[in-house]
Amino acid sequence: MKTLSETRLFGGVQGVYSHPSAATGTEMTFGLFLPRAARTGKVPLLWFLSGLTCTHENAMTKAGAQAWAAEHGIAVVFPDTSPRGDGVADDAAFDLGQGAGFYVNATQAPWAGHYRMWDYIATDLTRVLFDGFALDEGRQAITGHSMGGHGALSLAMGLPGRFASVSAFAPIANPTQSDWGRKQFTAYLGADESAWSAHDATLLMRAHGFDGPVLVDQGGADQFLGLLRPEALAEAMVARRQEGIFRMQPGYDHSYFFIATFIRDHIAFHARAMADSGGSGAGS
Amino acid sequence: MKTLSETRLFGGVQGVYSHPSAATGTEMTFGLFLPRAARTGKVPLLWFLSGLTCTHENAMTKAGAQAWAAEHGIAVVFPDTSPRGDGVADDAAFDLGQGAGFYVNATQAPWAGHYRMWDYIATDLTRVLFDGFALDEGRQAITGHSMGGHGALSLAMGLPGRFASVSAFAPIANPTQSDWGRKQFTAYLGADESAWSAHDATLLMRAHGFDGPVLVDQGGADQFLGLLRPEALAEAMVARRQEGIFRMQPGYDHSYFFIATFIRDHIAFHARAMADSGGSGAGS
After folding, report:
1. What is the DSSP string of A149-181?
2. How many beta-carbon contacts under 8 Å exist across A and B?
3. Which of A98, B72, B97, B237 lies deepest, with the highest CB count within 10 Å?
4. How many Cα atoms within 13 Å fall on the side-chain side of residue A199?
């Protein structure tokens, strides 16, 4: 692992690091905010998965998460959204290829070689984080925005027991029924739709839900509501009797201004769930 | 109007009053909590509509609303759920007739004579309250439980501009598709289902929604989830992009213990919406 930068922020440290990933076969970069409490013990970890076109940097600089993470004494990791580099397949479209990994393990050419973002998040980066920093593996939560909200919900429901809580900002909520999903799943996973259902939050919610609290915020003036399909997830959550809260926030669009407005609530939500989850760390 | 009792509570007064209603043609009883602030000026008013089998008394004594209403300086009215008396039609079933008015104006025999609970709430009791007490007619909000949640949502959407906000605890959310609804609407309104749609929160939400914030709490262990159909309302709220919050509360049932646990949030929600709504009273 290489340290690219470390900067004091709200009494803690905002770091940027890179490391080789076996999953993607590339060097990967991530941001990690460690609160002051991490100097003296292990702290809970919140994952923030970003959306289309983003790197590790967008949410780290624009979401405003660190102020509240510092207050609650929790760390936040900001992974990249895809493998990158000259040897990595790409596409001219903004919503396929680099910056658009969709948090799946691609099985189709030309993507299968490097596009293994599910394994990257679930395994590779996980080991880098818990082996390298003062983080409590027993206290993890996950959130994300748009494509990253899809990733957060999919990983949370796909890895039972791993995360104490999951939240999302304007997630791609039903990708198997959206042009944000069908295009990418066809490319990465192939035309057989049976391989897609493990990566659709609405289908996962209908099938088994999440063993913990769920919080979803959606802007009412979001430019992409037709692609996000939040109503499908809301229906599935309530039909499942899923512990959770779905909030429609009128006037907010799809931008980081929307995230910055409500991230405080999400951090408090996850901090409480992680405190309740009984982790093993000194940060408890 | 007759004063049946007035009792000091949280620095204010819990009163019980009765009055003749032109709508129902009967004497009607209601509870009204006035906070201390009503001694010196007009205060905002929250309506609490109760559920099947309830009188004005159940929520008044079991919901725990007054503690938080006092803190926010708002009044709460607890109407009865139907006309009552020897000359009033009734049914042996708990969910039809006395105690089960469903907040509609009945058009069918033998109910049409007295069962006009929509007009009673919307007009008769309204005039009694604003003519007789220090209440700010420009600042009203409405909530309710079960059948009363249905009533609150229906009245809020059916009387645009009247209420600043609406909330509900475990509302009968889609009565035209439930045995809690089809039976009563057939009896009170007749078999022509076109007359029912003005009294179904899900259909009203799909048609035009509510011009203000909506808050719904539903217990995950509610005994009546199949009759309440909360998932239909959740889907409709998000599909409409309705400003609002839908919360599934795991482990809570249909009882007043569920209401008492979350009424604090509802009072704060309505107090804020009424403060934002710019009423005319000295309580502003």
Report:
1. HHHHHHHHHHSTTT-S-EEEES----GGGSHHH
2. 66
3. B237
4. 26
